[in-house]
Amino acid sequence: MFEKSSWYSSRLQCDTTLARWGFSGQPVLVFPTAGSDAEEIERFKMIHVLEPLLAAGRVKIYSCDSVAGRVFFDKQHSVEHRMYVMNQFHQYVKHEVVPAIRTDCKTPDIPIWTTGASIGAFHAVAVTCRFPDLFHRALGMSGSYELLRFIDHPQPTDYYRVSSPLHFVPTLSGLHLDVLRTRYIHLASGEGKWENIGESFRMGKVLGDKGIPNWVESWGNVDHDWVTWRAKLPKYLDDWTSPKQAEAAAQV
Description:
alpha/beta; eight-stranded mixed beta sheet; 11 helices; 44% helix
């Protein structure tokens, strides 16, 4: 049920890990919070609460190391380098992680869903908006979408602009935008300690202004914490992989 593979990524110039739980079902790529690793979701008991869906063969959960998060918050590197690695991380996901998932699923064109909490939500939304031919649905939980505030709002570089959905989504047009308008992005956040639902509303407006289907949901007075995310993610995946939802999706 659990497998882990590692390889050296020339795009990121480091060893990387991809972990997988489950044996069949909808592939879901979970991005770690901040700069954590591929097995964070197991240590924080997320895999435990997803066990009924995994055992039923309804989802396969994947997670990769958050190299971008680790570098982005490392002040030993220049701001320019940190923004460069952000783009490289997304290219790594597109060109290395996605093919690995599709090979594991034995389906060369299987659509993938993304999710993550906090900074993980940023990446889940970003790669879905950047690569809608690969990712069909995103769930951002307690998302932090304006990352420049963590580095004192420097001038964004081109590498950052193409990586940050707040920056690049307003520029989308043509076929890329047409495809993205057939996808769905759910932005959910609490309003308790350490939460800022305003970031989700801002992200939702950027998406909505371009006609990209999305929904901003408030969880009410709950905190920015694993207790919250463990309670919420299984419910979304249970609902989204229900036979009724699958039938509706097949008719689109």
